[in-house]
Design a protein that fits this description.
Elements (H helix, E strand, L loop, with lengths): L8 H29 L12 H9 L3 H25 L3 H6 L13 H25 L3 H9 L2
Length: about 150
């Protein structure tokens, strides 16, 4: 019989934060390199923030939409490979956490894909809610003209 200790929420949260910082840094680097390569103006440090990203998405800016798509794609592949096939993401490794199946080995590609789909499915209801209640850019312009 295999005996394991379940990891608590604080260690899992720290591991997830490490993974999020790593993925954000990689996405920001790739987006910045692409912006320089394509001669797209890069905003200053004071202008960068969540409001710039949301405004870019609402205005259907290709760089903003591409950055979000790149982040989601990289996050999916990162979780699929590291968590599913290797059994540990880099954040999990830093915190001493590993994923195992009933036999004590890493989950494998099929269970990793199932885990990734389940994680994505948990995030669909908030994404659907946001999509239903974020106004169209033309509606936003109408609202901004009102006194």
């Amino acid at each position: 019989m295999l005996r394991v200790r379940v990891t608590g929420f604080p260690r899992r949260a720290v591991a997830a934060l490490c993974d999020l910082v790593l993925l954000f840094a990689l996405t920001a680097t790739v987006t910045a390199v692409l912006a320089v390569f394509l001669h797209v103006p890069i905003p200053g440090l004071r202008e960068v923030g969540p409001d710039l990203l949301v405004a870019g998405i609402l205005d259907r800016n290709p760089m903003a939409v591409g950055a979000v798509g790149l982040f989601l794609g990289m996050a999916g592949l990162y979780q699929l490979y590291f968590a599913g096939m290797a059994g540990q993401t880099l954040g999990m490794r830093l915190c001493g956490i590993r994923l195992i199946c009933r036999r004590g080995r890493p989950p494998g590609p099929s269970r990793g894909l199932l885990r990734l789909l389940a994680l994505g499915g948990m995030r669909l209801p908030p994404a659907f809610w946001c999509r239903c209640f974020i106004p169209d850019p033309s509606e936003r312009r109408m609202v901004s003209r009102m006194p």
